[in-house]
């Protein structure tokens, strides 16, 4: 900090603001839009954990002095008097804690003096522009030593890997408990383990020997078990005094396990994100992401929180390897329920906690099961990480983004970033979206069979297996493997067609997933995979920029992208750092790319025919004859590789539904069969079949909730019937039955006219004459032409009839939109107007 | 000037008008039963909130049957029940049928809802990616986004990119979203492209006009004054007594029947009552049967008939001439041929009403402006003025009826019309 003079600290007005943003900011500075600043008046408890942050911080000489002079102060007190979160002060104070919390104070302070500080906020835009330059500068100044990154490190005879969860020492009470027992003591006999099985109380998490219990248990009981002490406490009241919790024998110090310490916040848990060694001094460092116990969150422990629950935070810190105690195991709910006897260090984590916004979010991987949609989201980033040999740059970027997140709260509206919806800001501010509290109904609720069935029938839930599409998947796999495993990969095309809901896209995606696993196993050459949906492109030409972005990571206009892609595929020039991997291009809804001169399709299908392209195109569309509709030069390039996904038949649909419902007892077998037969007869669309079953489950749920006395809790035929009715039957018959009297007469007159003339189309003039004569003979009052016209137009708006606009009056052309038999069926048995039947 | 206005009358007038214009007041009693559309819709939406699943629903029914009103009721209740986890995005097909504009509007409303900065400059691509990202984030935070697409049929035109993106995002990302389409077209779901239709969950709720009993209950609910209010005591009981008298009157029932014969939706009833209440005599402060009668006649006007009734003699002549030409099966005629017919009538009957050509042209123009006659469409537009073919827009019987009720229609015209 001695090297650079502190720059002027204008926190309010960024010096460099693009004019476009400026205009935009002015026009949108309405009070309702003001983003809430996170409440960080009370200093974050965890802020003490930011042990070192070698990032460019805004510095204030006075602050640093002040803090350095009080370096020996109690940590906790310091936290209490930390000023309302101001980035520079806060981080500097954190930095000053580092000598305390780590064992190498001298070196660190020296390092401190070397760090070049630059204020965060004022010149952030500038920094963004020449980031690489900046990074280099900081590198040379701050880290004269190089870092070596590892994926796995052996330390103190334990192996640590990226992604592992560990206990981390908390400095203040490092000497409170010297010994850290691996196995906890029994709560009754106060002897640890031995060969006896210990049982854990689900409430107080205390361990008990099976034989120490009263009465002693032989086996571990199924389901939840609560110890006698907790049971008494729960039932409360009178008998609470009868059971005395046994006191430990005199002299024996009650040893606490790490789990207890963690849950009483004397220890920390964290996930390792990065491992590295400083080359100079050989000290191992890790970058960790903290876990938090529910008590530490703003909302505190909620009734639905489990005892062993932790939250993953978005709070990072670099710590020395020395602070790591040992492994613990933080699992998602699914694994957690399986890991019931994996020891004491197992924890559950389902939610992520944002320390700045104090909001909760589910962890994405958990929801997706095996994170296959994650790939779609992080795919690009992963690739970057793999490609990037210079990891250092990554670190800086990360840290910068952290800072950005921090400072954004303060800066609020004056942020120079674009809006949240523009990509420049990388959907900036999405971290704000989060539940302030986890809604209780999500956690406490025990799902009934019907609800489980509904959840598993959702279109969004990815099935574990894809039945009935083995042949097609094999064919796709063979095609892709055949294309990429050749030594010199030739470009090829495949056209996949089939009606909607026959599993085209999901089959291809699952093939790609399997292939990815094989790539990781080393059986298949690496490739890059680009997925594009034709209907999600703003215009067909945009596909070039999307492909280019996927390949190179840069966004350019489509013309430039086309140029570069042409070079890449036709001439074999490389784009950027990308190596010579084959490229698989999946284009969903291919028919949307057909332009007037079909140049987009031509280009895309022309590339694979070039010798050096290494491009494989998989096109998916609904129509079978798309190639035939195209120009001959395109259909010839599309080749003859076609794959048809036929509509499912009823046994296949039945299998699909029953594999999804496997293990859930909610449907009658006949009900499933009925639904699948019905769908197979109409469309063979699996989505439709699933939706019908889900709707049937909803109907059943509604029926059972309103009528408590129902015996069967299953979905019966009647429910499926109702769902099918709702889905397939057009509602016009019901509407026709309930329309006003004159509308009915009007419709009858139209049918009558149709029978009389045999012409589908008629004019209002004729219909009105018929209506008046019908009314006359049956003693109804004729309302007048203008009212009749209005009635006709109303019917036209419901599309029961088709009609021209009403201004044409007498000349208005009318036509029934439904078969006349439907009208006759709807109106024949009418109580008010029995005579209508005479005309139908 | 004689009697003075009762202050309570004005207050009651305002109260009832306020009720009529508040859809939630009107539809609350209709939604009480467990079989009503309200409870069906609420069940679907609230289960998708609590169970975290996606749904798409269509609300169908004729105009004025209370689709949007019931949806508003449900949305209001759900926002109260789950204040943190529901956000409502509203689009209207008439305003946002353009993809670009619809995406922008969704992004804007999402930004507003979550206090994010919104950029007007963002492209369609960016906006759609933003929406997908938001859907995912909200899904992870247990927040449900409800998309209300009013005039759903307008979205179901063209490439249907909006619907496809929404529905596709709902089936592939861990999102919690409900798409509710409102349409008066019964075949709205048939308009969807097949790949969109396949992704649509096809929940349909049909809105039908209420039964007669429900209407009676609704009438009382709307018209009777509350007993425990600031109105003078006697006034309330007098007012309610009068309402009861009127509604039990058979003449009133006839009026209602005529009204419902033409249009039996809730909306038409509301309009009818609004008119009747607005005609209330403020001096007595009570409604009367005459108010309802006047309201009915003001609802069922016959503009064409009135137009004929207000025609001048010359205009009637011209109309009759055109009619005669039609009877002679001369399907196409223009001003020249009508003038010729007019001249023959004049020549054979020696009427006193013979006007010069330019006067007649003015009369033609007048008739055309009132849409009693019109030019038939001719593509070429080559012919101008008097050579363009014309058409009569009113039927013979209307013309007949109108001339009969005309104040000074010459007798000879009626005769000419018949032969």
TrEMBL record, chain A:
Biased composition (Polar residues): 1-28
Subcellular location per the Swiss-Prot or TrEMBL entry: Nucleus
InterPro entries hit by this protein: AAA+_ATPase, AAA_lid_10, ATPase_AAA_core, BAH_dom, BAH_sf, Cdc6_C, ORC1/CDC6, P-loop_NTPase
Acidic residues: bias regions: 384-400
Region (Disordered): 1-141, 370-418
CDD domains: BAH_plant_2
Broad class of the protein's primary localization: nucleus
Biased composition (Low complexity): 29-44
Domain BAH: 246-364
Biased composition (Basic and acidic residues): 67-97
PHD-type domain location: 183-233
Pfam families to which the protein is assigned, alphabetical: AAA, AAA_lid_10, BAH, PHD, WHD_Cdc6
PROSITE patterns per UniProt: BAH (PS51038), ZF_PHD_1 (PS01359), ZF_PHD_2 (PS50016)
Keywords, in A-Z order: ATP-binding, DNA replication, DNA-binding, Magnesium, Metal-binding, Nucleotide-binding, Nucleus, Zinc, Zinc-finger
Domain of life (superkingdom): Eukaryota
Record text on subunit structure and interactions: Component of the origin recognition complex (ORC) composed of at least ORC1, ORC2, ORC3, ORC4, ORC5 and ORC6. ORC is regulated in a cell-cycle and development dependent manner. It is sequentially assembled at the exit from anaphase of mitosis and disassembled as cells enter S phase. Binds unmodified and methylated histone H3.
Stated role: Component of the origin recognition complex (ORC) that binds origins of replication. DNA-binding is ATP-dependent, however specific DNA sequences that define origins of replication have not been identified so far. ORC is required to assemble the pre-replication complex necessary to initiate DNA replication.
Similarity remark: Belongs to the ORC1 family.
UniProt name for this protein: Origin recognition complex subunit 1
Organism in which the protein naturally occurs: Camelina sativa
UniProtKB/TrEMBL annotation, chain B:
Purpose of the protein: Component of the origin recognition complex (ORC) that binds origins of replication.
Principal subcellular localization: nucleus
Source organism superkingdom: Eukaryota
Full protein name: Origin of replication complex subunit 4
Native source organism of the sequence: Camelina sativa
Domain Origin recognition complex subunit 4 C-terminal: 219-402
Residue stretches making up the ATPase AAA-type core domain: 57-203
Keyword Cell wall biogenesis/degradation: no
One Pfam family named in its UniProt record: ORC4_C
Family as reported in the entry's similarity comment: Belongs to the ORC4 family.
Keywords attached to this entry: DNA replication, DNA-binding, Nucleus
Subcellular localization, as worded in the UniProt entry: Nucleus
Entry annotated with the keyword Nucleus: yes
């Amino acid at each position: 900090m001695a090297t650079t003079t502190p720059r002027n600290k204008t926190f309010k007005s960024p010096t460099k603001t693009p004019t476009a943003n400026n205009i935009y900011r002015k026009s949108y500075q309405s009070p309702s839009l003001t983003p809430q600043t996170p409440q960080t008046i009370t200093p974050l408890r965890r802020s003490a954990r930011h042990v070192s942050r070698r990032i460019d911080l805004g510095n204030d000489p006075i602050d640093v002095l002040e803090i350095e002079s009080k370096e020996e102060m109690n940590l906790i007190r310091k936290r209490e008097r930390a000023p309302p979160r101001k980035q520079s002060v806060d981080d500097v104070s954190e930095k000053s804690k580092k000598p305390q919390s780590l064992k190498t104070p001298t070196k660190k302070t020296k390092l401190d003096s070397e760090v070049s500080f630059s204020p965060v906020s004022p010149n952030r835009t500038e920094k963004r522009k020449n980031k690489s330059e900046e990074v280099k500068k900081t590198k040379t100044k701050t880290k004269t030593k190089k870092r070596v990154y590892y994926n796995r490190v052996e330390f103190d005879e334990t192996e640590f890997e990226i992604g592992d969860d560990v206990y981390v020492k908390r400095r203040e009470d490092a000497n409170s408990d010297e010994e850290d027992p691996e196995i906890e003591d029994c709560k009754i006999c106060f002897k640890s383990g031995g060969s006896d099985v210990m049982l854990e109380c689900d409430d107080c998490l205390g361990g008990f020997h099976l034989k120490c219990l009263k009465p002693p248990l032989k086996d571990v009981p199924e389901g939840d078990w609560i110890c006698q002490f907790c049971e008494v406490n729960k039932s409360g009241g009178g008998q609470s005094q009868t059971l005395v919790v046994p006191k430990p024998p005199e002299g024996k110090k009650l040893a606490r396990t790490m789990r207890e310490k963690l849950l009483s916040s004397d220890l920390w848990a964290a996930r390792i994100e990065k491992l590295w060694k400083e080359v100079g001094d050989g000290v191992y460092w890790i970058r960790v992401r903290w876990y938090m116990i529910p008590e530490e969150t703003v909302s505190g422990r909620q009734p639905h929180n489990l005892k062993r629950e932790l939250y993953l935070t978005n709070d990072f810190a670099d710590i020395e390897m020395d602070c790591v105690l040992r492994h613990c195991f933080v699992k998602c709910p699914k694994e957690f329920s399986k890991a019931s006897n994996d020891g004491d260090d197992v924890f559950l984590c389902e939610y992520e906690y944002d320390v700045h916004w104090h909001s909760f979010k589910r962890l994405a991987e958990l929801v997706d099961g095996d994170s296959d949609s994650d790939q779609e989201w992080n795919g690009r980033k992963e690739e970057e990480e793999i490609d990037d040999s210079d990891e250092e740059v990554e670190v800086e970027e990360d840290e910068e983004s952290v800072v950005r997140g921090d400072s954004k709260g303060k800066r609020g509206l004056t942020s120079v970033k674009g809006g949240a919806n523009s990509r420049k800001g990388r959907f900036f501010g999405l971290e704000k979206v989060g539940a302030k509290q986890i809604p209780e109904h999500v956690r406490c609720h025990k799902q009934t069979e019907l609800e489980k069935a509904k959840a598993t029938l959702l279109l969004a839930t990815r099935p574990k297996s894809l039945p009935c599409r083995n042949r097609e998947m094999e064919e796709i796999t063979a095609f892709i493997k055949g294309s990429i495993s050749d030594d010199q990969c030739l470009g090829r095309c495949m056209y996949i067609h089939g009606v909607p809901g026959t599993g085209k896209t999901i089959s291809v995606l699952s093939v790609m997933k399997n292939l990815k696993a094989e790539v990781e196993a080393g059986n298949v050459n690496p490739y890059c995979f680009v997925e594009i949906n034709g209907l999600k492109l703003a215009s067909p030409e945009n596909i070039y920029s999307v492909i280019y972005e996927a390949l190179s990571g840069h966004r350019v206009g489509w013309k430039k992208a086309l140029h570069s892609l042409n070079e890449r595929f036709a001439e074999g020039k490389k784009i950027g750092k990308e190596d010579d991997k084959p490229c698989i291009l999946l284009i969903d809804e291919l028919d949307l790319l057909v332009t007037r001169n079909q140049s987009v399709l031509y280009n895309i299908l022309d590339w694979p025919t070039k010798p050096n392209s290494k491009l494989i195109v998989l096109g998916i569309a609904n129509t079978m004859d798309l190639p035939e509709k195209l120009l001959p030069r395109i259909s010839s390039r599309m080749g003859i590789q076609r794959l048809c996904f036929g509509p499912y038949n009823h046994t296949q649909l039945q299998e699909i539904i029953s594999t999804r419902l496997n293990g859930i007892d909610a449907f009658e077998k006949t009900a499933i069969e009925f639904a699948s037969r019905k769908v197979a007869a109409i469309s063979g669309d699996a989505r439709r079949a699933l939706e019908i079953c889900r709707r049937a489950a909803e109907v059943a749920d509604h029926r059972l909730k309103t009528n408590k006395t129902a015996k069967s809790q299953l979905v019966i035929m009647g429910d499926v019937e109702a769902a099918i009715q709702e889905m397939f039957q057009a509602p016009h018959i019901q509407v026709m039955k309930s329309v006003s009297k004159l509308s009915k007469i009007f419709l009858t007159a139209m049918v009558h006219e149709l029978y009389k003339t045999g012409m589908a189309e008629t004019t209002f003039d004729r219909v009105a004459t018929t209506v008046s004569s019908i009314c006359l003979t049956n003693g109804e009052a004729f309302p007048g032409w203008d009212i009749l016209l209005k009635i006709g137009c109303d019917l036209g708006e419901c599309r029961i009839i088709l009609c021209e606009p009403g201004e044409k009056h007498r000349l208005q052309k009318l036509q029934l939109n439904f078969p006349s038999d439907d009208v006759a069926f709807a109106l024949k048995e009418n109580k008010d107007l029995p005579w209508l039947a005479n005309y139908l | 000037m004689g009697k003075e206005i009762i202050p309570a009358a004005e207050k009651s007038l305002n109260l009832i008008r306020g009720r009529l214009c508040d859809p939630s007041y009107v539809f609350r009693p209709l939604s009480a039963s467990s079989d009503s559309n309200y409870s069906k819709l609420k069940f679907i939406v609230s289960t998708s909130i609590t169970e975290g699943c996606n749904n798409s629903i269509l609300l169908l029914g004729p105009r004025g049957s209370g689709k949007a009103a019931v949806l508003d009721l449900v949305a209001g209740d759900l926002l109260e029940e789950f204040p943190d986890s529901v956000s409502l995005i509203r689009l209207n097909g008439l305003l946002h049928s353009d993809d670009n504009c619809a995406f922008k509007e969704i992004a804007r409303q999402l930004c507003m809802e979550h206090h994010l900065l919104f950029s007007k400059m963002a492209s369609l691509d960016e906006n759609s990616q933003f929406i997908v990202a938001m859907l995912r984030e909200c899904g992870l935070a247990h927040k449900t986004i409800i998309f209300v697409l009013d005039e759903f049929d307008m979205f179901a035109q063209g490439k249907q990119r909006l619907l496809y993106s929404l529905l596709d995002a709902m089936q592939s990302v861990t999102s919690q979203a409900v798409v509710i389409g409102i349409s008066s077209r019964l075949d709205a779901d048939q308009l969807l492209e097949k790949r969109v239709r396949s992704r649509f969950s096809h929940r349909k709720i049909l809105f039908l006009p209420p039964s007669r009993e429900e209407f009676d209950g609704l009438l009382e609910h709307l018209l009777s004054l509350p007993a425990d209010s600031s109105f003078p005591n006697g006034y309330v009981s007098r007012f309610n007594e009068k309402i009861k008298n009127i509604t039990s009157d058979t003449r009133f029932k006839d009026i209602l029947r005529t009204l419902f014969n033409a249009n039996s939706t809730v909306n038409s009833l509301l309009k009818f009552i609004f008119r009747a209440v607005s005609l209330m005599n403020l001096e007595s402060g009570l409604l009367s049967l005459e108010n309802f009668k006047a309201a009915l006649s003001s609802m069922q006007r016959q503009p064409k008939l009135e137009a004929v009734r207000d025609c001048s003699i010359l205009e009637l002549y011209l109309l009759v001439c055109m009619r005669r030409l039609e009877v002679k099966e001369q399907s196409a005629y223009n001003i020249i041929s009508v003038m010729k017919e007019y001249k023959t009538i004049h020549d054979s009957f020696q009427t006193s009403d013979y006007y010069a050509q330019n006067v007649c042209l003015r009369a033609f123009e007048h008739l055309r402006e009132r849409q009693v006659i019109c030019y038939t469409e001719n593509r070429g537009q080559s012919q101008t003025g008097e050579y363009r073919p014309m058409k009569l827009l009113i039927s013979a019987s209307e013309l007949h009826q109108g001339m009969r009720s005309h104040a000074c229609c010459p007798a000879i015209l009626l005769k000419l019309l018949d032969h």
